[in-house]
């Protein structure tokens, strides 16, 4: 099998990159001098990873590494920006979850107050409204049956269609 010189160099370069073993322990120092290839989890590790890749490219003799260096630098910068954005979003999600939990506690407290009075059916709701209407009517009658027009207060407004004091129409 015969390869052109450039193709052979690329194959050797790719073989060198593929031989890198990813360690299973994440406690490796972030120092670029002793950095081993692994998936970066923060901006410091991303910078160390790009430094490692640049040094591996520089060790590959016989080709111009400048375009590859520029690509690796752009990739490292993008990874660093994503890591920073991820950190900010994680903090925001944490704050929103705490606020949501506090809000749901307030809603549960309100529902608990309603439950203390027992379950409220539709008929019970209507009977409560009717009782309020009766109390309003009694209060209105007390004002109008006072006898003295000077003491008489303004009449309570009522709906022209259903005669309710809850709304005006």
Provide structural commentary:
This protein is an all-alpha fold and 169 residues long. The protein folds into two domains: 30-113; 129-169, no CATH class. The chain contains four helices and no strands. It has helices spanning 5-18, 43-59, 66-116, 122-144.
Strand proportion: under 5%
CA radius of gyration is 39 Å
Distance between the termini: 95 Å
How many individual domains?
2
What is the helix/strand order? HHHH
- Count of individual helical segments: 4
Structural class: mainly alpha
Kindly state the mean pLDDT as a whole number? 73
User: Low-confidence parts lasting 5 or more residues at pLDDT below 50?
Assistant: 25-30
**Assembly of the depicted chains:** single chain
Percent helix, as a range, is 55-70%
Number of strands: 0
Give the CA-based shape: rod-shaped
Major β-sheet profile: none
